[in-house]
């Protein structure tokens, strides 16, 4: 049994962390901080948690997490980097769901996020928390930087073919759709039901903060520079990332599904659909799963489709998967629930 | 550990039963029947169940459930009554989610369902499976008739005030809304996304099959005849029943919330919101909970609001709650998950 | 051809006014004001209007509407009452969609809206803009106070039976559901798609600002005091009001559909469904129509169901219907479009 | 004033044709056929049309359209080819919304649709009804084959750059999402609200009937063979096609928005968003518009985004646009309505 704290627990990744951790048999959630909601009972802000938790949000200024074994940050960017260094010095394990420790290129991070990074040495120390790529490093990490939602879907989709060296790394295209929860629990007109339902649109065609994170990871998989064209879309739904990926095959004679099978056969959360059905976000909603299929249409352009829940495999579930590795628990502990259907 | 069979496992109540039973620590699901899908793997029809179940649907003609301790029927009406008698004779426990054993008045049942009842003696033997009303009887029952979704919401809403004798039993009104999953997994044009989304309508204003079931139960609570005006609506969502109930108070000086508190204080699944927030179907989606509030506006008309998930507390979850009682398990075993939010 | 100005043109009622007025053959929209968006092109804020309008929003401080024949106010409450008096003095016609001139009882208005009314004499002068009730008075009005969305649905539903004297005016109940656009184009967390979709809830059970407006109108129809229990709900959709109304019949032998037929036979926008189908909000979405049916279940409680579009018949369309009457145009001019289906 | 008949008027394209034609000032709809609904009043099947039309569906076996000037076919594939030849011989104008006369390569058509084509000579005679490409030919056509919904979006998106010769025609990729109305008004489980809402999925990755139609059109624009990788998706909404297109630029120095501007400056229904906002399906819902933007991210892969309403510009509206050209009406007559917002 470990004790867990969460900083920034009032956003969508935060409440999803709470829900999942409350069901985890080896975890006790002991501290939740929120500047805006300090003093408010957690189950008053989130009535769905009634009966599951008997805590109130605390002011982060007053909380030092001495009694916690691990602290999750579910904060906006540029928050964790201020507080994490002290926790690391205390010897605490830290799992950051924000972007603060994801990008090795500090200059690039500062360009995209518009502030100076105050803990660059921790960026070096942080382990990128994609278990399918970095499992062993995560086990021994003190600080894990969890991937973003789009980067999780895109990297898991391209990884087998990039590692196998069978696609041109300069030809990558990702057309992705996200539910509106990906934009966070913030009051914006464009996210109102009245504005966002019954409509599809792209956004950020000319540039998105997740692009350098994806190129960094994909380049490592390829062993060389990659070029990725990334177009995110807002879909009229709450949860889910659907990614449709394209690349030029360098060898059209290959058994692509076999490559995916070899790559992912022991992964607890990757589900290959093998042409029996196509990945669909509702199959994975509320779960830590990632559904993937690969299809080779006539011609040399391969198509890979991926579905995850942006708040689980794309955020809080993946963070708990990392926690399980860091503490020697079974990797899927507390993450085995199946999607509610319909 | 008990062995469980499900007849008619391909509908929405059926797949929800599977999902919930797979997570139940004392249950092994061993047999699932479906005439239409015999031979098909369960996780092929319902990909969300991949990894959780390694069975195929079987033809009901070939399955006799000798190895099962309890059999659930998630079939359309007029199916269970044909098969249940033999199972009861074999000494099996049976939990029927359909309407076959709910109505004590056989003639009324035959009028509403348009067929002759072939097992009227079992109707007498069956226990109505609303634990908040019938807990002790369910414990020792061999055959449980689970309440319908509307009847669950309406009866739990009116019960405290009817039992306390503080409302006029001839003045009951229920205006209820259901998600489209309540109409079942059947291909009908009016249930298409293109027809049912972004719209509200009533249906069955002139009469609904659930009315006599409600009047039967409410009359017992009142100890006298009741008169209920019931208007169901189709809401543009998948899951959930929201019930808004009205009745004439016979004594306007009462502490209505106190009456609810007394009635439901030990109930594991009833959540009283006490004016802090209003019951909302998303708070209970995917869970066995029932949120209730009571408000007394100026005047003598009391308003009670209720939210349940039609497929869980209104069907499969309540059936498992009954199973837990019948087998001496903790009543909430396997039913403690919280709603996914957002 | 008349010239029209709109104050507060950036809310949902405002943009709907623009859309409808642009299609009106006798109207030229010449001035649109908005404090927040002054200087912004209208079709930049609302891209759906591209090609239809070549204006920018103007700062209300600079606009005096000298060149306008009629000015619409689509402002929050307590705005119009400050500006309308000067316009009335100039001889302009004014159509107010807000609550400022709806309630004859100034004290009640001040209680519900929490501010002092600065133009009580205009309240006396204003005509309540429900054409089915007040057609002749609207024709000659200088100032029209348009009904709210709930009051439109509830009053049109009860009017025939109240006027016919066949229901008990102290027994009225209205259970209504609104799409989220009814809450306006304002950035609130509870209106986000991620919060409001796939859920039903009541709100304001203990009191709602539209109640005194409804009771005022219903009392006039009844010729005596009425008692209304009103429960509004938020439905997971953008547009539409669905009202389900209940009342005690004082004479159960009556031809209720005949009473509605007599009352509404010449109304251009009331559609009686006569039991052939039930009123449904998608049938009227985007249109000025009001679908109504009345059903008499067994017993003495009559059920009336009503569907309107909250932004058209419940706001902007009804305002234009009033304008048509005030300027002697055909009542349905510019309002004859049919609902988009599906 | 012309007289119009519609064959197969009960599907979604059919009812949308009726709605639009009823608002067309030069059209009288005189005959509507449907095998399944013969004898049923049109406004009984589609209550939204009440007051707009006083006709019943007729059995196609009894209707010969002698009194019609033009006949629309909104039928499934392989229906029109049987009936159109006789109408053409009678001298009638025919506008077919189905696939029967779209593909010049009869063998390819027969492969994709699985039946022998019975009127190949009419395929040769038919004019492909994309006005932005074929305006003059449509004016004088007797038989117009309207483009499919995906082909309209994809062709309008690629046309300017293909005609300008600035993209590699062998590098085309289209990732498109459609609302569920694109699958028609047919009772299928996968299109139920309970199955299709709140989810995104691809379908037909391995091949889609619209692909040869797109390649045929794009090849003509390019003046050479093209290679298109096409992935359609089902989006959780009713209406709309959103297309995100990718291609390799052969000259990265070009003013891409200028090329689009030149190409589409006189088009009545193409709206270029020029980076001010991104195309969004709700901007065009219910209208004949096509919103397009082009963006050149760093690198040589151009991204084009397109939004149309699948039932209007992707079907019935475009068919009426063709009709206007064929009869010498103003091209946008009856098609000028703006999208309902929100």
From TrEMBL, chains A, B, C, D:
Keywords: Amino-acid biosynthesis, Arginine biosynthesis, Cytoplasm, NADP, Oxidoreductase. It is found in: Cytoplasm. It comes from the Bacteria. Pathway: Amino-acid biosynthesis; L-arginine biosynthesis; N(2)-acetyl-L-ornithine from L-glutamate: step 3/4. Its EC number is 1.2.1.38. InterPro entries: AGPR (IPR050085), AGPR_AS (IPR023013), AGPR_dimerisation_dom (IPR058924), AGPR_type-1 (IPR000706), NAD(P)-bd_dom_sf (IPR036291), Semialdehyde_DH_NAD-bd (IPR000534). Belongs to the NAGSA dehydrogenase family. Type 1 subfamily. This is N-acetyl-gamma-glutamyl-phosphate reductase. It comes from Candidatus Paraluminiphilus aquimaris. The gene is argC.
